[in-house]
Prior knowledge:
This protein is α+β, with helices and mostly antiparallel strands. It has two domains: 175 residues, Beta-Lactamase (2-Layer Sandwich); 115 residues, Homeodomain-like (Arc Repressor Mutant, subunit A). The protein is built from 14 helices and four strands. Helix 9 crosses helix 10. The protein starts with a helix and ends with a helix. 33% of the residues are buried. The C terminus is likely disordered.
Amino acid sequence: MPNTIRETLSERIRALPELQQFLDDFTQATGLPLHFVTALGHRTLGAEVCTLCRFLHAHPAGTKLCAAFLQKLLEQAREKPATAGCDAGLSETAVPLRTGGQTFGFLVFGHNRLQPPDRTALNRARHLLARVSVTIPAEQLEVLSADTPVAEPRRLAAMARLVEAAAERLVLGITQHIVHPPASMPPLVEQACKLVRAEHTRPLSLPEFATRLGVSAGHLSRVFHHNTGLRFVEYVARVRAERAKALLTDTDKPVTDVAFACGFQSLSQFNRTMRAHFGCQPRALRQKPARAAGKAR
């Protein structure tokens, strides 16, 4: 996916009310800042981060160090949550927002220490920071570290599980945002999406839709991709996958019948698509509600 489209989609995700509410709730409940970071690693730090972080971001060498650390953390978290520590002795955890085999962004929290810093830890941080031209006297580093929150590993792991659970719910909202685009989409894209949702049970092609909508296939492809972040064929697959998931969880239709009822041309194509979007085979989706009901009894 081109970077400009990734960023456009990331900004739409950032604006989701449920995301903003969770970011605020998490910070209020835990005392640790939680940020949405775009798929390309862009984020905006607020006043809620600790004094040491603000100090580092106020200096060019510190800003470069923090940016490099964030990119390394996000690479580790492309497919599953990851935690890492920076040269200043602070820890951050990143949880990916993934759907359909793509990462749309990350929830990143932390700027904390795993335990109260002692003299040895502060000296080690001073030594590592000095290697990248960030020189801080011992007394100043101690003052800068005074308000750094402490979250020991067990508590941090619990927070990560909460954020991961929230990420799964947010991904559903992101998926609906893509499958059912807002009315602010260009009329051409909105009409194409409506036609796909209405006719996904039969074979669909971009040239056919372009002819019906009175534009060239190239123009429809570009406009559709720019506004949804997906190629036409990816959008069709996503709509079919969402419909198949609903039939698997809400009806007793055989898996084969569900596959062909949703427009898939073969069981192998159906299985590949469902695994890409939901991380499991279709039968597993049917079993999940039953397991959840069993736990509730």
